[in-house]
Design a protein that fits this description.
By secondary structure, this protein is α/β, with parallel strands linked by helices. It has helices spanning 5-23, 26-33, 51-54, 62-74, 82-91, 108-120, 132-136, 141-151, 176-190, 193-206, 211-214, 228-233, 252-268, 288-294, 328-336, 338-346; strands spanning 39-43, 45-46, 59-60, 99-105, 125-129, 156-159, 168-171, 236-240, 276-278, 299-305, 317-321. The chain has 2 domains: 5-136 and 228-346, Alpha-Beta Barrel (TIM Barrel), CATH 3.20.20; 141-214. The longest helix is centred in the N-terminal third of the chain and has 19 residues, at 5-23. The structure holds zinc ion.
């Protein structure tokens, strides 16, 4: 889908402004001024084939990730393990604009594409792993359904004899997300794990897509238990992200169970005792920090954009959500503190925030 022209012009203008600021020494100045703030970067999956075109915030091409790591090295940023960085932050010892790399969800490509690059650059990372799919070794149906509605060349979908909720004739262009939500919702409410996989195969056929091509290289699956040791060998520490990627805000015991079950699975698969948490999709409520503290959680990561100072709540940590289509100058602006500065001057600059999976 083409981006509206005004949005494109805004992005180009923003980039030109950033280049001018870097040339004028503003990046270097901002970096000095913000040297006591901890930067935390956020990634999700890594792209195989066209995944980065479908969801640039969720799937980054490994070549782009490699350039990010190289830039961190070239600009002499110190990348620390999460726990060490948070201890420093708590003590007020962040003084070089240190960086933490976090990766959410646990897509298989974290192991196959990102971990070797982290190892090559000797940079640690924290993986927030949601465990429901890890135990079942199945594709993440919500995401693969949305991808297939994006990928199909069909303009109409005709469904007969599957279920009253799904049957009918539908125009696809412009309705991709709504149709995907309908199919994913049906799968989650009406099917067990095997039924959901069957539903996705049925949908692939209806959309004229080859299911095995869509899901090749396990590109819509998460890691499995056997991958944990290899990730750890590459310097990836594994932490909490709930069991089913939901964290209720009205039921404390259900929220606690999400974490306890997540923690039990992590221990069972050899990831160790996890005490750091990331809110699924970055959504949190005012009561969550207290609930997390009661469970022995030491920190919680949001998707709020920004860097962190020593007085910041460890349960509301901010990050920069890097994305495949962000230019290097934009990434560098975030690292330097310039983007924080611009946001505080003007409110959020650039595109409106998106909610990742
Ligand atoms: Zn997530």
């Amino acid at each position: 889908m083409r981006k509206p022209q005004s949005a494109q012009i805004r992005r180009i203008t923003k980039r030109l402004l950033l280049y001018a600021m870097r040339t004028a020494g503003v990046f270097a100045m901002a970096r000095r001024l913000s040297r006591r703030r901890l930067r935390i970067l956020c990634y999700h999956g890594f792209s195989i084939g066209d995944q980065h075109e479908y969801a640039p915030i969720m799937f980054m091409r490994p070549a782009v990730f490699a350039r990010r790591l190289a830039l961190l090295k070239r600009l002499n940023y110190v990348v620390l393990p999460l726990a060490e960085a948070l201890e420093k932050l708590h003590r007020g010892d962040i003084n070089r604009g240190e960086v933490v790399i976090t990766i959410d969800d646990g897509w298989k490509s974290t192991l196959t594409l990102a971990a070797p690059l982290l190892l090559e650059h000797a940079m640690p990372a924290c993986l927030y792993l949601t465990t429901y799919h890890v135990e079942r070794a199945e594709v993440v149906t919500d995401v693969v359904i949305e991808y297939m509605f994006w990928r199909t060349a069909r303009t109409t979908l005709s469904v007969r004899g599957i279920a009253a909720d799904l049957d009918g004739d539908f125009a696809i262009p412009g309705n991709e997300r709504a149709l995907a939500a309908r199919w994913a919702g049906f799968g989650n409410k009406q099917c067990d794990a095997a039924g959901r996989q069957k539903l996705v195969r049925t949908l692939a056929a209806l959309l004229d897509l080859d299911y095995d091509t869509v899901t090749r290289n396990r590109r819509f699956a998460l890691i499995d238990a056997a991958d944990v040791a290899e990730l750890q060998r590459c310097g990836v520490d594994i932490q909490l992200h709930t069991h089913t990627h939901t964290f209720p805000s009205s039921d404390q015991s259900a929220a606690a169970e999400e974490i306890l079950q997540n923690r039990r699975v992590l221990e069972r698969i050899g990831a160790g005792r996890a005490t750091h948490f990331c809110y699924p999709s970055g959504r949190y409520a005012p009561q969550h920090p207290e609930w997390l503290a009661a469970l022995g959680i030491e920190s919680a990561m949001t998707c709020d954009v920004g860097s962190n100072h020593s007085g910041h709540s460890p349960f509301l940590l901010k990050r920069y959500l890097d994305r495949d289509d962000a230019r290097e100058i934009e990434f560098e602006a975030e690292l330097s503190g310039v983007s924080d500065l611009l946001r505080s001057l003007r409110g959020t600059i650039g595109r409106p925030p998106e909610t990742p999976k």
